[in-house]
Structure formats: structure tokens, C-alpha cells
Amino acid sequence: MKLKVLDGRITINADDLAPLLDLTNAEFRERMRDGRIATLSESGEGEDAGRLRVTFQDERWKVRLICARDGTVLQRLRLPVGRG
């Protein structure tokens, strides 16, 4: 899995991410469009300089990707979103 980073804009193939959120590609695209999937990107500092952390979260799952400078995913974390 690899992210594309161009001019500060991050893109990822829906085929890669949708299954991690238990969604079809169509569901993933629809939820991204209407804002039901929150995203956060952070640039590493210090010993993590050059790395990127990107988080995608819907009502059920949080998926965090740690990526190298070129967008290659180095680590993937998938957590259920707490309820209550």
C-alpha cells in the first residue's frame, strides 16, 4: 500500500483503504465526499522527520498509516472507535 503525496495533497487508492474500514469502494467514496470519514495528516518531527502519519476515521473504525517520505506505508494500525 502506498499513498501519493503531491503539493501537500494526499491521495490513497480506495481499493486499499475501503476494506480496512469495512466498506465497499462506493461506500468509502460517498462517505469521504459527505464528510463522514474524518482525516488527519501529521508530519513527523525530530527522529520521525520525513515520515507522515495519516488517520482515517468513521463511526466504527480508526485507521492510522505511518508512511515514509515517498508514501510507502511502513505501519498500519486499525482500532475500533469507542462507544459510550
TrEMBL record:
InterPro entries associated with the record: DUF6522
Protein name as annotated: Uncharacterized protein
